[in-house]
Design goal:
35% of the residues lie in helices and 26% in strands. It has 271 residues and is of the alpha/beta class. The chain has a five-stranded parallel β-sheet with strand order 4-1-12-13-14, sandwiched between helices. It has a four-stranded antiparallel β-sheet with strand order 8-9-11-10. A three-stranded antiparallel β-sheet has the order 5-6-7, with helices on one face. Helix 8 links the parallel strand 13 and strand 14. The longest helix is centred in the C-terminal third of the chain and has 19 residues. The radius of gyration is 18 Å and the shape is globular.
Length: 271
């Protein structure tokens, strides 16, 4: 039976320049591979060692990139190794099969959101009315499924995020702060549901997962084993669960460590 590996991307396997956390002396910094270019600028990186590990993992397991990114944002990433047959985008709103969204899956998700959550327009209007232009740089709606703000973190009041989370909770939504982005996401819109669907389709009996943010918690809990890096919302909250390993590594080296753990677990299960 195949092993399914569902991993978050940003700040888990791939890293922006600001998130690399290269704290070692320059001469000892790892060689980096650019895996995303946007508007002619290099945007995301992994170490060359991590790239080799991911290539090996793609041969050994069903590797499923699992991201809150929109389809368009995901498709500009050029990961090393075999092209994944499945990918989870928009936090589970789109299940990609050979690069194309599964329309039946998307219809099931949107029907559930309509039944269980306050409408997106209500949340978007609340964000527009209450976010201070002093620290908000962009308002965005992703795939007509959820909303997010791009902010100046040093100016963002922590209490505002907490108050938004309380407001959203009563409406069936959750809030996550990741880097410079504040996400407001419907609670039923989960990476875990899409992962379970891929596991059903592939017949995988062992599921492995990794992630760094609160939006990854359900994915980690749904997997048989999981890993989180030493940075991010989950690490800041000291979040843990019995099957989850909290790694000490931070930044791009955490991505390398996570891939080593994926490969070790996969080979142990298939040997």
């Amino acid at each position: 039976m195949p092993v399914l590996v569902a991993s978050d991307l940003d700040r888990t396997l791939i890293y922006s320049p600001a998130a690399l956390a290269l704290t070692m002396p320059d001469a000892r910094a790892p060689r980096l591979l650019c895996v995303e270019v946007h508007e002619s600028r290099p945007l995301s990186f992994m170490t060359e060692t991590a790239a080799a590990l991911l290539t090996d993992l793609g041969d050994a397991a069903v590797f499923v990139p699992t991201t809150t990114r929109t389809r368009k944002q995901y498709l500009r990433i050029n990961l090393p190794g075999p092209a994944p047959k499945y990918a989870i985008c928009a936090n589970g709103g789109h299940l990609m099969v050979d690069g194309v969204s599964d329309l039946d899956w998307h219809a099931r998700v949107t029907a559930r959101l309509a039944d269980e959550c306050a409408p997106l327009d209500e949340v978007r209007e609340h964000l527009l009315a209450n976010a201070d232009p002093l620290w908000v740089r962009k308002h965005r709606v992703a795939e007509d499924l959820f909303a997010y703000l791009v902010v100046e973190r040093e100016l963002l009041p922590e209490e505002w995020v907490k108050e938004l989370a309380v407001w959203a909770e009563s409406r069936g939504w959750t809030v996550s702060l990741q880097g410079r982005k504040i996400y407001a996401v419907p609670k039923p819109l989960t990476k875990s549901a899409a992962m379970r669907e891929v596991a059903r389709r592939t017949g995988a009996e062992l599921t492995l997962a990794a992630g760094d943010s609160l939006l990854d918690a359900d994915l980690l809990l749904a997997a048989d084993r999981g890993w989180r890096p030493g940075h991010g919302e989950l690490a800041d909250a000291a979040w843990s669960a019995p099957q989850i390993a909290a790694l000490p590594e931070r930044g791009v080296l955490a991505g390398e460590r996570i891939l080593r753990e994926f490969l070790r677990a996969t080979r142990g299960a298939t040997s």
